[in-house]
Amino acid sequence: MPGSLEPLDLGVQIPYHFRCPISLELMRDPVTVSTGQTYDRASIESWVATGNTTCPVTRVPLTDFTLIPNHTLRRLIQDWCVANRSFGVERIPTPKQPADPALVRSLLNQASSVSNPAASRLSALRRLRGLARDSDKNRSVISSLNAREILVNIVFSSTASESPELNHEALSLLVMFPLTESECVSVTSDVDRIALLSQLIFHSSIEVRVNSAALIEIVVAGTRCPELRAQVSNVDEIFEGVIGIMTNPIASYPRALKVGVKALFALCLVKQTRHKAVSAGAAEALIDRLADFEKCDAERALATIELLCRIPAGCSAFAAHALTVPLLVKIILKISDRATEYAAGALLSLCSSSEHSQRDAVAAGVVTQLLLLVQSDCTDRAKRKAQLLLKLLRDSWPEDSIGNSDDFVCSEVVIPSY
Q1: Which Enzyme Commission numbers does its entry carry (predicted)?
Q2: What mean pLDDT comes out for the span 117-135?
Q3: In this model, does residue 169 exceed pLDDT 90?
Q4: Do the Cβ atoms of 197 and 189 come closer than 8 Å?
Q5: pLDDT digit string (tens) for 70-112?
Q6: Under DSSP, is residue 32 helix (H, G, I), strand (E, B) or coil?
Q7: What's the N-to-C CA distance of the chain in angstroms?
Q8: Quick one: DSSP state of residue 135?
Q9: Range scoring the smallest mean pLDDT among 81-95, 200-214, 257-271
Q10: Directed axis angle between helix 324-331 and helix 355-363, to 10°?
Q11: How many structural domains does the chain have?
Q12: Residue 418 forms part of a structural domain
């Protein structure tokens, strides 16, 4: 085999032994397997994860799957990167080593033992949190060692009032992991645990408040029992706390808006308590922050708006906000197919309940948007909502649009279930 492969576009050849035999790319974290061959960590882990049990180069069975970091080769690669900086080569960073399961197990034991001093338990949780932040691999290792159950018990420990910092640290670590349904039920079925979350969501620390909202979203979304979900959403303070998080200045804690809208959407899936969201100020918060959401969060915010517009109180609250209708009209065909569908659904509800909203929609140019929508590649549900809305607004159309109106046949809307 050649000593070096084809030159890259940046005008420098990568030495053959610096390339991973699997990916043929420059190794960033070279590790050696039991056969003595060296690969990039990500490539060999992917090889093993797909069920392969042999060395890719030698085809010899791997006696074990321990990956030993090749520090010497990694330093040589880093030196080569520095030497070729003029060709646009960036130095690869020194990788952080994956968490040792034995260390993780020891830290979990240290954190969970009530006989240990609070400071010792807190230190263990902080080390675990640092490991979890480093990589998905570390989170997988931590999760596999019964960490979620341990963390749930610490968060809702009866000693919360004695060492709140310990509980807050466990909470910040717990929300990094998806919970099983049984773990979610263990929270939603316990009124004392719900009460604690409703208290934490008003904590003086924005981080504690956001983590509380994050756990509320996780357990509500992860519980299939409607009665248990309603038990959480029936707490007035929870809606107030979640909406308070959404109105937090973005610059001070960017994660707040994302977590807030996820929690609000999960809570609004419970039909019988949507009026509580409206009473807590959801309409104003959603409309005022609509322009600040990223794509996925904007879709979730619009879905929440459509859900709340299905109840009279929600329709009234959104109709009372001067920016609601113009913003929803503007969003059509701008963000995504889903966003368009939710915006059209919300407009349909608003215009069905208010002639004032109809006039606002027409003034904002909704007719043109809807005519474009029904001819687009958007979802069938979005088109059906647009057709019904066009029919509803027919008497309010501008004169120059009436001539085009006969091209569209209205059909019944199929309301999606959330």
Answers
A1: 2.3.2.27
A2: 93
A3: yes
A4: no
A5: 999 999 999 999 999 888 888 998 888 788 899 999 999 999 9
A6: strand
A7: 58
A8: -
A9: 81-95
A10: 50
A11: 4
A12: yes
